[in-house]
Design brief:
Blueprint: E1 8-12, H1 16-26, E2 32-36, H2 39-49, E3 54-58, H3 66-72, E4 81-86, H4 91-99, E5 104-107, H5 113-185, H6 191-219, E6 228-231, H7 232-242, H8 244-250, E7 253-256, E8 261-264, H9 266-282, E9 290-298, E10 301-308, H10 340-350, E11 355-359, E12 365-372
Parallel strand pairs: 1-2, 1-3, 3-4, 4-5, 7-9
Antiparallel strand pairs: 6-8, 9-10, 10-12, 11-12
Helix pairs in contact: 2-3, 5-6, 7-9, 9-10
The structure holds adenosine-5'-diphosphate.
Residues 275, 279-280, 283, 308, 310-313, 321, 327-329, 336-342, 365 line the site of adenosine-5'-diphosphate.
Length: 379
């Protein structure tokens, strides 16, 4: 909220009689008025005694006229609203003043109407100026917020990269020496020690996969994302081709509707479909995993669905599964590292879309995601 202080008016007027009359007329109203005898003094007071909400500028003044004052007014966020006071027959001055950003103008006809109108015009101008100032303040805040968000995102990405990169080194040492022990001293070790050594090897292998995953996740950078026209049906066909051996091993059936052409990053969208279809086959205990890919258009977005007949997900976990390293199963039950859906979410959100799941345990799942329909944005 804008703070409720008295509106401040800087009035530049070279006629002392008019200035005094103005002060008297405005005395009853709740304004703070600063007077200046000419444009030069006005500009000085503007700089030294600002900020002001309203500048009331007489056009005809010695040294600088009203338009010159407008030209010389320093730029700034809290620019006041300007009302130009012109003499009769000065319409072109009024037009010029408005072109230069003045809010309003008023003719000094001196027949009383002028002083009646002035408080109304000022009141209106104060309201407009305050709104304008509030808008500018909010825009500046938004800009600062966006810059801060971008900075912290970059920092986080860098952090994930550095940490995962640096973790690799001690891990290599552990794996190297465990391997050395196994190869060179394996024969001297009893069965239990060999078993423990196996756990060390297994654990470090898993850790290496997680670190690789984290590195992979932090590498998914989108600032330089290149968007092109992508035929999503082609992508799905490509995924089916890439997952050929999994599909035939699991005896899976993959079907799809006619799928649209969208604007997106081809490599990332391929990965999105790949992760979702791969999961749909993986998290299924049926003899024939069935996966269906659909697309529907709603209010400017394409909504894709990847439906399966798998084990389903308890709705209480519907949000958690999109967080990095969050899994609902042990690695023994279903292999995986808990990265796939986190990457999917990053990809979709960087296309300015959303991703969610509808599912119940034992009833299959449908993963939905949206991609803005930029193809037809101008239709
Ligand atoms: P990962 O598959 O490597 O565990 P994901 O991030 O892809 O990692 O998935 C996170 C978790 O969400 C999985 O561990 C699984 O419990 C659940 N999940 C993902 N896809 C499905 C699906 N189609 N059906 C049932 N559960 C799923």
């Amino acid at each position: 909220m804008a703070e409720e202080r008295k509106p401040r008016i800087l009035y530049m007027e070279d006629d002392p009689g008019l200035a005094r009359l103005f002060e008297r007329k405005m005395a009853k109203l709740d304004y703070e008025i600063v007077l200046a005898r000419d444009g030069q003094e006005g500009l000085q007071r503007y700089v030294e005694e600002g900020p002001f909400d309203i500048l009331l500028v007489d056009y005809q003044m010695p040294v600088y006229d009203g338009l010159q004052v407008l030209r010389k007014l320093p730029e700034g966020d809290a620019r006041p609203g300007v009302i130009m006071l012109t003499g009769a027959g000065n319409e072109e001055v009024a037009v010029e003043a408005m072109k230069m950003g003045a809010l309003d103008y008023l003719q000094k006809d001196l027949d009383g109407r002028y002083f009646q109108l002035l408080p109304v015009v000022i009141d209106e101008a104060v309201k407009r100026t305050r709104l304008e100032q509030e808008k500018r303040r909010m825009q500046a805040e938004l800009k600062r917020y966006a810059a801060e968000l971008e900075r912290s995102n970059k920092e986080l990405q860098q952090f994930a990269y550095v940490v995962s990169h640096d973790l690799k080194e001690p891990l290599h040492t552990i794996r190297g020496f465990a391997k050395f022990l196994e190869e060179n001293c394996g024969a001297q070790l009893d069965a239990q020690s060999r078993e423990f050594l196996g756990y060390i090897m297994e654990g470090s292998q898993r850790m290496e996969r997680l670190i690789e995953g984290l590195l992979d996740y932090s590498r998914v950078k989108f600032n330089e994302l290149k968007l092109t026209r992508v035929e999503s049906e082609k992508l799905v066909k490509q995924v089916i081709q890439d997952l050929k051996s999994t599909i035939s091993r699991r005896n899976a059936q993959i079907t799809y509707d006619t799928l649209p052409t969208i604007q997106g990053n081809e490599r990332m969208l391929l990965r999105l479909f790949q992760n979702l279809i791969d999961n749909a086959i993986k998290y299924c205990r049926e003899a024939v995993p069935q996966v269906h890919i659909s697309a529907e258009k709603h209010d400017g977005v394409w909504e894709f669905g990847v439906r399966d007949n798998g084990i389903g997900i308890d709705p209480k976990h519907a949000e958690r599964i999109f967080i990095i390293f969050q899994r609902l199963h042990s690695a023994n039950e279903f292999a995986g590292d808990g990265l796939g859906l986190a990457i999917c979410k990053k990809i979709v959100e960087n296309h300015k879309g959303e991703i969610w799941v509808k599912s119940r345990r034992g009833k299959g799942s449908t993963f939905y995601f949206t991609i803005p329909d930029k193809e037809n944005a101008h239709a």
